Amino acid sequence: MNRKELNPDASPQAAYGARLRSLREARGWTQDDLSERLAYSSVHISAVETGRKPPTLRFSRSADRAFGLAGSVDSFERQYHEMKHGSLLESFPEYVAFEGRAVEIRLYEVGVIPGLLQTQEYAATLEADAVRRGAITSEQAEERVELVARRQAMLARTPPPWIHAVLDESCIRRPMGDPAVMNAQFERLLAVAEMPTTVLQIAPFTMGARRPFSLPVTVLTMADRSIMSYAESAQRGHLERETTSVLPILTAYHQLQAEALSQAASVALIEELRKGSQ
């Protein structure tokens, strides 16, 4: 039997198909076995797995019932909606699935508060501006805001992941919406800093050339201690799962943390800005 090798990085549809095959094989199911559980033919399932046929909402919900993923951050329905709206960068839906299972998340952001730490009002304001510029539709904006909430829900799982967040100073200096939006966002950051499984630091402008990253980057550590990184440009996202490629990024992240403000100094700076936003 010829087995087609899958490249989940080729497209969101390919990532969907590769994940479907991976979950099926992890349970020891054949395509015929899954066919009985989904009420779709094995030929149809094969076409979805290899990216020859796009999944539908009905197919996705059937897959969620079969794999016990209904309503979870890893659901196929969630992945389907992200593909349908096409509002997310390539590789991001796959990254989000890994993010929801990571035991440690190290993130660095520039210009905006990262999604895991955003208030709903901040997220809505950010996406509303993208709609104004014609970059996305209002429906896509709603989907993005909903995704922020779904991603944040995993922070409440037991046990929660360790979060190491380093924000470029531009993230907290850039106004987003009216003062009330920023004040609430500052309060959210201060609350995050109080969490026992979170370290929050600000990378000040004065770091200058000592800053190891110029673009946002995230490093995930999974339960099996494997690591992967995700980075974005304005046009695309890239998920790197090769350990030899991720290790230099992890080393640079440790250097970033050493140069950034301590959490206490970072909290003091956020407090100062919060008072100015009232």
TrEMBL record:
It comes from the Bacteria. Residues 20-76 form the HTH cro/C1-type domain. CDD domains: HTH_XRE. Gene3D superfamilies: lambda repressor-like DNA-binding domains. InterPro entries: Cro/C1-type_HTH, DUF5753, Lambda_DNA-bd_dom_sf. Pfam families: DUF5753 (PF19054), HTH_31 (PF13560). This is Helix-turn-helix domain-containing protein. The lineage of its organism: Bacteria, Bacillati, Actinomycetota, Actinomycetes, Kitasatosporales.
